[in-house]
Specification:
By secondary structure, this protein is an alpha/beta fold. The chain is built from nine helices and eleven strands. It has one domain (about 5-260): Aldolase class I (TIM Barrel). The strands form two sheets. A nine-stranded mixed β-sheet has the order 1-2-3-6-7-8-9-10-11, with helices on one face. Strands 4-5 form a two-stranded antiparallel sheet. It binds iron/sulfur cluster.
Amino acid sequence: MQTAANHKFAVPLADGLAVEAVWYPSGTLCLSTQAGCALRCPFCASGASGLRRNLHVDELWQQVEQARQHGHAIARLTLSGIGEPLHNLANVADFVHSCATQGLPVSLTSTGSPPQSLPELLALPHNGVMLSLHAGIAATHRRLLPHAADLEEIWSTFDSSLTTLSRRSRRKLGINYLLLAGVNDGAVEIDTLTRRLQPWPELTLHLLTLNPVPGTPWQSPSPATIDALHRQLSAAGINVRRANRWRQQLEGGCGTLVASQRTT
Ligand code: SF4
C-alpha cells in the first residue's frame, strides 16, 4: 500500500505488548526502541505509563518487515519513536551496525540521558543524532524532562564529544526544540540556547510544534512568534529549521505526534 500520507501502524510483540512505527512518504520509517519509556516527559503519551521493557534487535527489524509488508519503500530509518535509545543501547548499537552493513541509513533521536552513554551513541555509524532538549535553561529542562539528566551535564558531555568529531560528523548532529508558548519561547531561553549553539555552527536546530488538540494545556507559539524566533536565531548564525509538513500531519511525527495526545 503506497500512500501520499504518513502511515502510523501498531506492531504487536510476542508477549502481547505493542509498539508504533510511522512511515513517511519521503521514505523514512520511524521506529520505536522500547515499549513505553522511563523518561515520562509530561507532554508525551508514549511515556505516560513508564517503561514496559526494552526491544530486542529482532523486534526493531520486525517493525521494518511490517512496513515492507504494508508495501512501503524504505529509504532510511530513524529511531525516533517510543523509547530512549540510550536506555537500550546494546540492542540499538547492534541494530545500527547491522543497518550500516546493509547500507541502510539510520538516524536517532535521544534526550542525551544518561550523558555518560552519549559518546558511545555518537560514535555509532549513524546518519544523524538529534538531541531533544526543548529548553535553554536547566529549570525549564527539568520541568519538561523531569526524569532526564541535568541539562548542564548533557551539554558538558555533548560539548566534549563535539570537540573530538570532525566538522563533517558534526553536520549530522542537531538539537530538537519543541516550542511551547510561555514555557520555552521567552528571551532568556532563546538567548541561552543561542549562546550554547553559536560555537557549533554545523549543528542544526529543529524547531518543532505541537499539533493542536482540544483541552491540552500546552500550546505552540503563534506562527508570527515562530517566524520571529526563526529570524532571530538565523540572524545569530544558528542553522535553524522548522518541522516539515509531514511531521505536522495528524498521522505522523513520533515525538511530535505523541506530544499532541498528552494533556497533562
Ligand atoms: S518524548 Fe521520548 S523520551 Fe520523552 S517520554 Fe516520550 S518517548 Fe520517552
